[in-house]
């Protein structure tokens, strides 16, 4: 909904309040309890919505989902063509097997289409709350510049409540949107360091994404190969957090921090595995190579 204001006063404030009340996300959308969402768990509530970050994630997510949709639509077209040829050749067993494959792909396409529509619905609701929140902020600023009266003070109190409600609803939607981000399967590919890596060297790699952690240890073997105690970890994407990677060299009882880097996950929402090669040291003498599949 769009709100139009021609002046400032109690009447306009009440109009805004009614509009905000009607647009309340929790009154219009049947979402699960906030406890179901990462961003809204006790001790991790984010009362500072980040519309620009949410917009970037939404665009990357929608693009990735459309890539999956196009790939499966192409597969469906291919199978449908073979289906027609098989029907003409009367190979019944192969025909029915192909028919099952087609139905399976069709079901998956319908799920993808529903997924995309749900993400778009959530983001549209988020944008409405964002605009209403901005409107409440502008109104608060305008009232603060005008002479203080009983009516203006009452309006400011009402606007503050409306601002808080919009903020809560935006955080609620951010939590709901996180449920639709899927999973990142991160594979360890090893360290690259040329002369810096010697047989017998031991390293520890620590990867963090919000509250999710992955700690693994590796060793450089005599044939320059590497062995790691873990090879893969699943991370749940987060709207507000980046990957934090820390590499430590283990020397007996001593540990030496090789480097700490951060990596944005916005480019990982795609159908193809993404290679991550990050410079652990400032000069890039040691690099870490990971692979992310969404």
UniProtKB/TrEMBL annotation:
Residues 1-294 form the FAM65 N-terminal domain. Belongs to the RIPOR family. InterPro entries: FAM65_N, RIPOR3. This is RIPR3 protein. Pfam families: PL48 (PF15903). PANTHER family: PROTEIN KINASE PKN/PRK1, EFFECTOR, RIPOR FAMILY MEMBER 3. The lineage of its organism: Eukaryota, Metazoa, Chordata, Craniata, Vertebrata.
């Amino acid at each position: 909904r769009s709100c139009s204001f021609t002046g400032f006063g109690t009447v306009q404030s009440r109009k805004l309040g009614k509009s905000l009340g009607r647009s309340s996300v929790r009154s219009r959308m049947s979402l699960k309890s906030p406890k179901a969402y990462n961003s809204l768990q006790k001790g991790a509530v984010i009362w500072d919505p980040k519309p620009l970050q949410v917009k970037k994630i939404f665009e990357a997510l929608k693009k990735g989902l459309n890539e999956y949709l196009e790939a499966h639509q192409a597969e469906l077209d291919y199978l449908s063509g073979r289906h027609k040829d098989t029907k003409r050749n009367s190979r019944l067993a192969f025909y029915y097997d192909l028919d099952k494959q087609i139905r399976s792909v069709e079901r998956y396409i319908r799920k993808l289409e529903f997924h995309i529509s749900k993400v778009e619905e959530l983001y549209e609701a988020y944008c409405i709350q964002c605009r209403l929140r901005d409107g409440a902020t502008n109104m608060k600023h305008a009232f603060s510049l005008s002479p203080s009266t009983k009516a203006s003070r009452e309006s400011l109190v009402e606007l503050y409540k409306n601002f808080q409600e919009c903020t809560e609803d935006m955080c609620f939607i951010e939590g709901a949107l996180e449920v639709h981000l899927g999973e990142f399967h991160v594979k360890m590919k090893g360290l690259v360091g040329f002369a810096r890596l010697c047989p017998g060297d031991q390293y520890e790699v620590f990867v963090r994404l919000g509250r999710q952690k992955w700690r693994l240890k590796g060793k450089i073997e005599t044939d320059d190969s590497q062995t790691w105690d873990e090879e893969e970890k699943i991370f749940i994407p987060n709207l507000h957090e980046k990957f934090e990677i820390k590499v430590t060299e283990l020397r007996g009882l001593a540990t030496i921090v090789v480097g700490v880097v951060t990596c944005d996950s916005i480019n990982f929402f795609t159908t193809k595995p993404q290679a991550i090669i990050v410079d652990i040291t400032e000069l890039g003498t040691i690099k870490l190579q990971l692979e992310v599949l969404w």
